[in-house]
Amino acid sequence: MTNDEKTRAQQLLGDTAPELVRLTDDVLFGEVWANPGLSPRDRSLVTVSALVALYRGEQLASHLRKALENGLSKDELVHAITHLAFYTGWPNAMTAMIQLKKITEE
């Protein structure tokens, strides 16, 4: 398997934490994200909100990209992050907004 064929988790941690990679690929993305109870768009909005609230910047960038791929618009994410500023803290929202700006300007 080439590096391009590996999942993101396999690329990042495949040699170091193969069981965590398996759980990420098979359970998190294979079952939880695939569950029809929420649309991928809604799952992305929930995930981005949680990552903003918890100040998880390292994970946020990839999930902002995924949110855009899953149908959320830049404007919707701007509104969601602005709303979150009042509940999760200004620094969390500002950091998220800066990441969104960088991603949408790429």
From TrEMBL:
It comes from the Bacteria. Signal peptide: none annotated. Residues 18-100 form the Carboxymuconolactone decarboxylase-like domain. InterPro entries: 4CMD/NDH-1_regulator (IPR052512), AhpD-like (IPR029032), CMD-like (IPR003779). SUPFAM superfamilies: AhpD-like. PANTHER family: 4-CARBOXYMUCONOLACTONE DECARBOXYLASE FAMILY PROTEIN, BLL4600 PROTEIN. This is Carboxymuconolactone decarboxylase family protein.
